[in-house]
Amino acid sequence: QLQLEESGGGLVQPGGSLRLSCLVSGKPVDYWNVGWFRQFPGKEREPVSCISSDGGSTHYIDSVKGRFTISKDRSKNTVYLHMNSLSVEDTAVYFCAADSLHRCPYYNEMEGWGKGTLVTVSS
């Protein structure tokens, strides 16, 4: 029933900004705690940010704190990741995932995943 679809990835210059979208279907977006993850080449997937189902709790890993902002639009059933001041080190495949039982900050076991969207930061 749960389906997630990421969009918004692409090529951006260092210092630039990009907004990723995660469209959540099956149930209203407020049913889910949603997390963003990323995977660097040759590395395991790691958490980036999450937002609770009610929007009252958010979390960011230290390396993106102050640069990335997670938000949601209930009318569009979409969770966003606004990324500012991007650097080459942010280049990765970004995934969104959802869980109905655990409140953010929580990344351990997610119920569903999107297929990912590639973000490339380069001149």
Description of the molecule:
The structure is a single chain. This protein has 123 residues and is mainly β. A hairpin with a 6-residue loop joins strand 4 and strand 5. 0% of the residues lie in helices and 48% in strands. The chain has no helices and eleven strands. Strands 2, 4, 5, 6, 9, 10 and 11 form a seven-stranded mixed β-sheet that branches.
Output the keywords.
single chain, 123 residues, mainly beta, 7-stranded mixed sheet, 4-stranded antiparallel sheet, 11 strands, globular
**Strand segment count:** 11
Order of helices and strands: EEEEEEEEEEE
Structural category: mainly beta
Cα-atom radius of gyration: 13 Å
Please give the share of residues in helix.
under 10%
Total number of helices: 0
Uncertain runs: none
Strand percent estimate: over 45%
Largest sheet: 7 strands, mixed
Overall mean pLDDT score? 97
Cα separation of the termini: 40 Å
- Principal-axis shape equals globular
